[in-house]
């Protein structure tokens, strides 16, 4: 009976750890995607600004 409780406890612990790792991975992936999107938007804005500067030159 005690051994069964210990096995259940260990299984629950491992499951909790796995869920936490999955959540950390999901959060990291979302953050990386957000950063990638922001970088792309900044590059687009820089390109538009450079184009405006080129067009403004006599």
The end-to-end distance, rounded to whole angstroms, is 88 Å
Round the mean pLDDT to the nearest integer and report it. Answer: 96
From the spread of the alpha carbons, the general shape counts as rod-shaped
Gyration radius, rounded: 25 Å
How much helix is in the residues?
Answer: over 70%
β-strand percent reads: under 5%
Quaternary status:
single chain
Can you tell me the residue ranges where pLDDT is under 50 for at least 5 consecutive residues? none
Largest sheet: none
What is the string of SSEs from the N terminus onward? H
By secondary-structure content and strand pairing, the structural class works out as mainly alpha
Number of strands: 0
Count, helices? 1
What attributes characterize this protein structure?
single chain, 58 residues, mainly alpha, 1 helix, 95% helix, rod-shaped
Explain how this protein is built.
With 58 residues, the chain is mainly α. The protein has a domain at 20-58. 95% of the residues lie in helices and 0% in strands. The chain contains 1 helix and no strands. The protein has one helix at 2-56. The radius of gyration is 25 Å and the shape is rod-shaped.
């Amino acid at each position: 009976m005690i051994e069964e409780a210990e096995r259940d406890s260990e299984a629950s612990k491992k499951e909790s750890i796995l869920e936490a790792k999955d959540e950390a991975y999901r959060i990291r992936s979302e953050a990386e995607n957000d950063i990638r999107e922001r970088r792309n938007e900044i590059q687009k804005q820089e390109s538009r600004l450079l184009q405006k500067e080129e067009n403004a030159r006599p």
